[in-house]
Amino acid sequence: MTVNLFDLSGQRALITGGSSGLGLALARGLAQHGAAVVLNGRDVSKLDAAVIGLQAEGFNASAAPFDVTDETAVRAGIADVLAGGELHILINNAGIQRRAPLTELTLDIWNEVLITNLTAAMLVSREVAPHFLARGSGKVINILSVMSEVGRRTISPYTAAKTGLKGLTRAMCAEWAEGGIQVNGIGPGYFATQMNAALLADEAFTAWVSGRTPAGRWGNPEELVGAAVFLSSRASSYVNGQVIYVDGGMLSVL
Ligand code: GCO
Predict the structure, then answer these.
(1) Which stretches of the chain score pLDDT less than 70?
(2) Is 158 among the residues known to form the active site?
(3) What are the strands of the beta sheet with 36-41, ordered from one edge?
(4) 88 in Cβ contact with 138 (< 8 Å)
């Protein structure tokens, strides 16, 4: 009898920041492997357009519009998601990028990045975990970055947040693994997304990424799906507290 360890049929996944970029690519990828996907976002029209697009492709997709940085909104939003059915997978993908030299950084920008890229993952996971623990199973995937390992000029809040998210991944593992939850991270390298539009428009920077990445190119959002399907599936039932870097080799080579 053939077994497909990566089959997500019967699973329901919530993807924060799911209406565009890597989040939407991950939602489509999990749906392609059988999961029902719930897309979260703050912009309702953008979110609805993404959901309608996935539904038009024949996937089971729905919207969960709430602000992942607002504790009260998260509590109500997760209650709504759970009222719609069981949840099995949480992908903490929501994130922003704000580039500025540290000496010009405002506290507002620092706080905005840290609360969106780090605190939100805690708020959403803290709300979802009790349901996973009650069932004795669940998957939490935090979307880190190569900036969880290295720094680059002008992105200090993002780097601090993504490094913190690596630590939070391990902390969640420490508290929830015994309860049947696998918590892991995925660390993308440089991917061609809207968040990086300014970088992609900069020929010198794009050339630097291609030269600094052993694969010699930027990643395509759908290239992140494999790691997400693996970490969402039975194939990773004994994988916990780990980070899979999908970076074309960038972190492994000087
Ligand atoms: C930047 C980029 C990076 C990448 C990604 C790498 O300004 O250097 O936004 O942060 O997008 O996060 O993993």
Answers:
(1) none
(2) yes
(3) 61-65, 36-41, 12-15, 89-92, 138-143, 181-188, 243-246
(4) yes
pLDDT per position as a tens digit, 13-26 = 999 999 999 999 99
Neighbour-count burial of 247, counting CB atoms closer than 10 A to its CB (0-12 exposed, 13-18 middle, 19+ buried): buried
Per-residue model confidence (pLDDT) at position 235: 98
Give the whole-angstrom CA distance, residue 62 versus residue 9. Answer: 16
Beta strand 12-15 with 89-92: parallel, antiparallel or unpaired?
parallel
User: What is the pLDDT, as a whole number, of residue 206?
Assistant: 97
The tokens describing 184, both together, are 């892991």
Q: Is residue 165 a contact partner of residue 192, using CB atoms and an 8 Å limit?
A: no
Q: How much distance in Å is there from the Cα of 209 to the middle of ligand 1?
A: 10
Q: How far apart are CA 254 and CA 166, in angstroms?
A: 22
Q: Which of 45, 50, 49, 40 is nearest to 84 (CA)?
A: 40
To which H or E segment does residue 92 belong? strand 89-92
Q: Is 103 exposed, middle or buried (0-12, 13-18, 19+ CB in 10 A)?
A: exposed
Which residue segments constitute the domains of the chain, with CATH numbers given? 12-247 (3.40.50.720)
Residues touching ligand 1 (Cβ under 6 Å) are 97, 99, 145-147, 152, 155, 158, 188-190, 195-196, 199
Q: Are 145 and 158 in contact (CB under 8 A)?
A: yes
* Ligand 1, atom nearest to 193 Cα: 11
Strands 61-65 and 89-92: unpaired
**What pLDDT is attached to residue 86?**
98
